[in-house]
Amino acid sequence: MVKIPLLLSFVFLISFGFVVHCSSATKGVGLYEIKKGNFSVKLTNWGATIISVILPDKNGKLADVTLGYDSVKDYTNDTSYIGAIVGRFANRIGGAQFSLNGTHYKLVANEGKNMLHGGLRGFSDVVWKVKKYKNEGDAPTIVFAYHSFDGEEGFPGDLYVTVGYTLIGDKKLKVTMKAKALNKATPVNLAQHMYWNLGGHNSGNILSEEIQIFGSYFTPVDSKLIPTGKFASVKGTPYDFLKPHKVGSRISKLPTGYDINYVLDGGAGSKLRRAAIVHDKKSGRVMELLTDAPGMQFYTSNFLKNVKGKGGFVYQPHAALCLETQAFPDSVNHPNFPSTIVAPGKTYKHHMLFKFSTAAPYS
Fold first, then answer.
1. Annotated catalytic sites, by residue?
2. Between the N and C ends of the chain, which has fewer C-beta atoms within 10 Å?
């Protein structure tokens, strides 16, 4: 599949159920698809965003299992980071500030006094360039690139970022995030913010879906969701998913739902390891997530409310779950957390692998 020029693509995009509105904000934005058999992923270079993931259920019926919108304009107005790459630093930085090599940096606060997902205009709200696009062969792929300038949202140094999405094997989606610090040391923490509902994006809430999380510890937070710097065992808490449980089985014990970073078992490293398995019994769909990141934010879309999504369906709290593999939140202010600092000339790397099936999970 070749890219269709923006100004000529209106009718084509309508056929995909997706509209690009031509404006200064969305100039250069396009729609792309990578497909392998009955497994397809649609994307846009606005925020390097995944628009849809189409998968069969146990009876072969196809459905879109990620939340999203019908037009780029909706994505430009989105406040929930739906489907996007977030950065330069995913999750929260307390007080929107940190010190590095003797210099104090004040960042752009966008959640009270704190920074969330890169500030007011993070990587989810910029147009990425398409570096590579191939929708043929055994591994259809697309690679987006973005040059983050020195001082963007308060962060030091120029940063060259790439995000690749590739379909491999049988219903596997590989996500590869890289970022090279060009001239100054800088913190980097990228995350993919997909909202998953394996029953289908318009099937209701995810409280009956089963999840297993391979994290024996989590990082407790204060009232503003900033880590305290301590580690706590999941044992005896609603956060214990070491064995599979329904998402909603203990959610009532939490103020609004899950929004917490897990310390994944095995630690960060070059090898991929299991982070989570999700199973929707009604559809039979199973999603297994592997990563080389040290942590994973488990979020049950607590703050979605009356959000008009694809096809006019209205998303409400707990309409989906997010599994954001990442470095630990606020790492720049906690020396005991794994470092997120990338030195000049060095490259940050972060990999995710989603395996989809309708096979028996937890084996």
1. 193, 324
2. C
